[in-house]
C-alpha cells in the first residue's frame, strides 16, 4: 500500500501487478463464479479469460476517458452501461466466429457484465487513472485471470478427463508413436470424473490458492524478518515472531494476538 | 502468560479414551468384515487390508508433512479405512481403496484439523467421491459369476424374487460389508452393550425409514417389501456405524432424534424416488452437513436457568 503512493505507477508495474501481485483469481479472489463454472477444460477457461480481458480492457479505457464526465452519484449505472455494451459486442463476435466456444460457455458470456473483476477495476482503477494506465491495468488483470482459469482448467482436464487442451492422452501417445502396450495401458485407465464436475473446481481452486499462499508466506518471512517496523508490512500474512506480535504457543489453532494496537496506545500515553 | 484451552469447571473425566472407543468400534466391525471375507473370498481381505494400511500411512505422512505429532495412535484412521473397505464392492481394482483412503484421511479429515473437526464422516465422504468419480467400477457387484444386481436394485426394478432369509444372513450381492444384516446387528449389540453408541440416532433412523416406506412406497402394508428394504443395502451399516459417528452427529439427545428422523426420511426418499437404488451414503452426508443447523436449534437449557419467555412475562 505504502509503495504505490510513493512510486508513481508505470505501465509495466501496473501490468505485472494485475498478472502476479494482485492476481484477480488467486489473490483478490474476484470473479469466483466464472472461475468455478467454466473451467471444466483448459480451452473453456482460456476462452472465458480472453473474452473477459477484451471486455475489461475496452471498458477500462472508455471509463477512464469518461471519468471526469460521469457524475459521482450515478457512476455505477454508467459503468454497467459501458461494460454491458462491450459484453454485447464481444458476445455477438463469439457467436459469429467461434460458435462452439460460445455454446460451451453459454450463459457465462452475458454474465461477464456482472463479473466483479470488471466493475472492481472500473471503480478502483479506471475511474482514478488515465486511459493508458487503465488499458495496461485491464490487460494485466485480464491476462492474470486468463492464466488462472487456464491453469485450473488444465489441471481439472488432466485429472478428470485425461485430456490436455482437448486432446486425449491416447491421441498424444499415438502422436509420439508410443508402443502398443503403452497405448492399451492408457486406454484402460479411469479418469477421476469428479474433477470435471462442480466439486472438482472447488478442490483445484482451494489447492492452488493454498499453494500460492504458502509461497507468499515464505516471501513475507524473508522480507520482513530482518527489520520489522510497525505498519511497515502486512502483519496478517507475517509468520515471524517479531516483538510486535504475541504468539500463543499453547493455543492449538495457532491463534495470534496482535500487539500493534496496544503498543501504539502505550506510545500515545507516554 | 499462559492460555490453556479449557472451560470452567466442573469437568467430568470418563474412563474411555478415544483410542479405546475406536478399538470397540473395530471389534464390532470384525463380524461384518469376517463375513465379507468368508462370502466374497480372499480378495475382500486384500481390499480391507489395503484400505486400512493406506489410511494409517496417509495419516502418518500428513502429520509428518505438517510437522505435527502423529495422531495414528487414536485408531480412528483404522476405523475409517475399515468402514471405507466395507463400503466398496469386491470387484474394484486395487487402487480404488488407496484413492478412497487418501480422500477420506487427507481431504475430509486432516485438512480440516484432524479427528473431531471433520465436517462429514470421512469414510462416507470418500465413498461418495468414489461413486461420483467411478460410477461404473463402484456399482459393479458381480462376484463368482453371480449375476450382478443387488437385492435393492431388484426391488427397484419391481421383481420380488429376493429371499428375505438370504438378505438377513447376507448371501446376496453388494458391497463387502453391507450384505449381512446379522453380522452388523451382532456388532451393533457389542457397541450398545459397551456403551459406545446408543439408539437415539440408529433407532430413530430405522424407525422413521420404515414409517416412510410404509407410507409412501406405494405398496401399502407390505411386510416382506419393508423387511427387504430394511435388510438390503447399506441401511444397517449406515445406521449403526456411520450415522452414530461422534464427530458428525448432533451432541444433544433432542438433536440426535431430529437427525435420525431426517436421515430416515432422506434415505427413503433417495431409495424410492431417485433413479439409483441406494441412498444411505448420500443421506448421511447431507445429514452431516445439516448438523450445525440442528445444533443451533437444540441448545439445551442449563439447570436452573429461567427461560426467556418467563422473564419477559415477569416484566
Brief digest:
Chain A is 64% helix and 4% strand. With 270 residues, chain A is mostly helical. Chain B is globular.
Structural description of this entry:
The complex is a heterodimer of chains A (270) and B (315). Chain A has helices spanning 2-6, 11-21, 32-37, 42-65, 75-97, 99-105, 116-126, 131-161, 169-175, 180-188, 198-225, 260-269, and strands at 163-164, 167-168, 245-247, 256-258. Chain A has twelve helices and four strands. Helix content of chain A is 64%, strand content 4%. Chain A is globular and about 70 Å long. Chain A has two domains: 8-222, no CATH class; 231-269, no CATH class. In chain A, helix 5 (75-97) packs across helix 6 and helix 5 crosses helix 7. Residues 1-6 and 243-270 of chain A have low confidence and may be disordered. Chain A is mainly α and 270 residues long. In chain A, the strands form two sheets. A two-stranded antiparallel sheet of chain A has the order 1-2. In chain A, strands 3-4 form a two-stranded antiparallel ribbon. In chain A, strand 3 (245-247) and strand 4 (256-258) form a beta hairpin. Chain B has 315 residues and is mostly helical. Chain B has a single domain, classed as Ammonium transporter fold (Orthogonal Bundle). Chain B contains 15 helices and no strands. The termini of chain B are far apart. At the A-B interface, loops of A face helix 5 and helix 6 of B.
Give the mean pLDDT of chain B.
87
Please report the first level of CATH classification, the CATH class of chain B. Answer: Mainly Alpha
User: What number of structural domains do the residues of chain A give?
Assistant: 2
Give the helix tally of chain A: 12
Tally the beta strands of chain A.
4
Strand arrangement in the largest pleated sheet of chain A: 1-2
Shape of chain A: globular
The CATH homologous superfamily name of chain B equals Ammonium transporter AmtB like domains
Level of helix content of chain A?
Answer: 55-70%
Structural class of chain B: mainly alpha
Reported for the largest beta sheet of chain B, the result is: none
Number of individual domains of chain B: 1
Radius of gyration of chain A: 23 Å
**How many distinct beta strands of chain B?**
0
| Largest interface summary | A-B, 12 and 13 residues
Fraction in beta strands of chain A:
under 5%
Which outline of chain B best applies?
globular
The CATH architecture of chain B would be: Orthogonal Bundle
